[in-house]
Amino acid sequence: MSAADHRADLIVIGGGIHGCSAALHAALRGMSVIVLEKDTVGRHASGVNAGGVRRLGRHYAEVPLSQRSMEIWYGIADFLDDDCGFQVAPQIKVAETEEELAQLAARRDELNDMGFTHEVLLDRAEVRAHLPAVADHVVGGLACLDDGFAQPYQTTFAFQRKAESLGVRFHEHTRANAVRKEGGDWLVEADAQRFSAPRLLNAAGAWAGDLAAALNEPAPVEAIAPMMIVTSRLPHFCDAVVGATGRPLSFKQMPNGTVVLGGGRRGRADRATNLSEMTFPELMLTAQTAIDIFPAMRDATIVRSWSGVEGRMPDDIPVIGPSARHDNLYHAFGFSAHGFQLGPGVGEIMGNLIATGATNAPLQPFSIARFSDAPQP
Amino acid sequence: MKSCDIAVIGAGPAGLAAATRAADLGYDTVLLDEQPSPGGQIYRAVETADHARTEVMGADYARGRAIVDAFRASGAAYMDGALVWNISTDRVIDFSRGGASSQLSAKRIIVATGAVERPWPLPGWTLPGVTTAGALQILMKASGIVQEDAVLAGSGPLLWLVAAQLVDAGAPPRAVVETTPRAHYRAALAQLPAALRAPGYLAKGWRMMRKVKRAGVRHFAGAENIAIEGADAASAIRFTAKGASERIEASSIALHQGVVPNQQITRLLRCDHAWDAAQQCFRPVTDEDGQSSVQEVYVAGDGAGIGGALSAALHGEITALAIAARDGRGDPARLKSLRAERARDAAVRPFLETLYAPAPHVTAPADDTIVCRCEEVTAGAIREAVNLGAPGPNQVKSFLRAGMGPCQGRVCGPVVSAIIAERRGETPGATGYYRIRPPLKPIPLSELAQFTIPDAPEDR
């Protein structure tokens, strides 16, 4: 048995926003932390998502986490010494029919019953007060008026730098090849180096399933590549981040006038090569939807597109919390294309949980155990 | 979806020769090109140029006519005005033509997208009135528009060619401001004997320079510290030469620092690229026949490394013959003789590359100079991002938006890599380059909304 080259209180595998945020929060609680990243920090979903800081429309189980995260977002500039490009803006899901509006109203009622009032229903006139350029057929919407958006790479990079300033050591281009328990510690072999720590966090995104499986705790992570397209600069016409109810769309005009379009259409993701590829025919409906909801988009020009590899769970909610099989192993992955807003809050929860062994956050719905009970293929 | 054996992209000499030979060999060949007529940049509008314009452009330009004629007579399908904006890794080409986008599936692709002018960011280069020598020449070829009173600044054979063509067109440039460092002349001397083996090039170059000087055009050598003045548009160019400060009033200034391979499609297709220290540029890694690191993707002509128009036409035909040879067809004897001819033609290259290598100040702009003109990102901001820890061009892009504008990094890419490499103390090859994402050029959203594929699965 040879000694490890690097030791710490905690090893985080994965340098995305969740890995960086958890590392930072653990360091704030006095832990020494090593982050292992097989590429570069923010290379995949964390650096190349659409940047929505959105509570609107979340799975009910995620709402408390999202609320806590939002409080951190409001103070993000002071917290990270970088504004992350964060701006408060309404997030609005428009209803194109009365049936859709009724669905949105039912959701609002359900949230109110749970004690949450951050999502509000907008009628025909109110939706136009926020979206003067919206198409005539839109009948209303559901909104979080003080959600927002940020710059994804800038944010992830800011988490990394703040963590580094507190002593967190980042090893980029360092792929965790093998993980095992040795003398009570986790030993991680990464290329030619050995890292050890009493605690281990799996925040490896689309690659997290491999790590979980190697530790005998399989979780069905699918690699997906959500696609986004960006237009040339247009005259300012929209302050809100806009989605649709009956069909996939994410629509946002940036401060510089470009419009970012996304909303769930997927390209090809290849975990083996780390690459993703756009499939444009899939985006035909995204383009049509954007033009239907904002007729001004008829004259827009697409200048850019991108996609990033992301991990998705079958039930579209992440795995967050302690391992069900091993002591001192933790998971935070599979955010299913909506983890960016959760990054600050879930990192705080994980930092607390790992440092103290306990949390009062309602993590039960996110337990990895929900997959171990399911029949394995 | 339509399909073909070989899709050739680009109708310059390499693409035309490749498509002509491929069709002759019996391959179902489609050539897609963005321009309305064949010829590429070098032979642009050669079919429609009248006698007077052909005289001005010279014999080298007129030579393109035969290449175009041979292509027209071949059985290759020609898609003019076809803007290729994406190619998938399984070789499905998305292209826009006549206001609609469609797809073509190709068993093999020959990328013949040629060269682009090396970007040269300097103070004032984004002002209206500042253009490139290549752009001035395109105006002459395509529209017969001759720029009067231009100042040509920079280095390279094209700088002198355009100056000579302006003289012949009756509009001699106001000045030629050459940045070629004195030391390069001494270094190039060693390459001179080899260069003389390539027929004609040096004599031609000397005649061009003599013509320009005899026309009374002012010439400054070894210029440094170049800056363009102007509030809303260019009004003068400033520089130092032979220890003296110079200033020339001009509203039209054409910059040039040689040409480099156009990497957009080969990067999109994930071909391996290497840093070519001699040519001071990235180029796709290929064998001598143009086979890239990606199966069934070939690169012909200047896109595989700068060799000039004659070499490009030879290379296009070589690539087609090499594909045929792989299929057990073709003409091995001709393939061999074309390779030898191309090697002879290349003898002048080490001389030109040594003489016209960009001066150090060209690839390392000052901190306050804008490098990414689309997003207005300065060289200093890029250096600061590297200091913060951004390890490469893609992180700089994500952090500063450099390369995110309408040109998709075509213009700033080489400079951004060079600046990061210098700051990190490594070669640009180690630094790498932007990941190139589609669309390669802007396309209307409404066109994407109409993008229908006959056999696409129904959307759920």
TrEMBL record, chain A:
Domain FAD dependent oxidoreductase: 9-352
MF term (GO), any: oxidoreductase activity
Coiled coil location: none
Any one GO cellular component localisation term in the record: cytoplasm
Presence of the UniProt keyword Oxidoreductase in the record: yes
Organism: Roseovarius spongiae
Name listed for the protein in its UniProt record: FAD-binding oxidoreductase
Alphabetically ordered keywords of this record: Oxidoreductase
Oxidoreductase found in the keyword field: yes
Source taxonomy: Bacteria, Pseudomonadati, Pseudomonadota, Alphaproteobacteria, Rhodobacterales
UniProtKB/TrEMBL annotation, chain B:
Coiled-coil ranges per UniProt: none
SUPFAM superfamilies in UniProt: FAD/NAD(P)-binding domain (SSF51905)
Domain BFD-like [2Fe-2S]-binding: 370-422
The UniProt record lists the keyword Oxidoreductase: yes
Keywords of this entry: Oxidoreductase
InterPro entries: BFD-like_2Fe2S-bd_dom, BFD-like_2Fe2S-bd_dom_sf, FAD/NAD-bd_sf, FAD/NAD-binding_dom, Metab_Enz_Cyan_OpOx_G3PDH, Opine_Oxase_asu/HCN_bsu
One GO molecular-function entry: oxidoreductase activity
Residue span, FAD/NAD(P)-binding domain: 5-312
Pfam families associated with the record: Fer2_BFD (PF04324), Pyr_redox_2 (PF07992)
Entry annotated with the keyword Lipid metabolism: no
PANTHER family in the cross-refs: ANAEROBIC GLYCEROL-3-PHOSPHATE DEHYDROGENASE SUBUNIT B
Protein name: FAD-dependent oxidoreductase
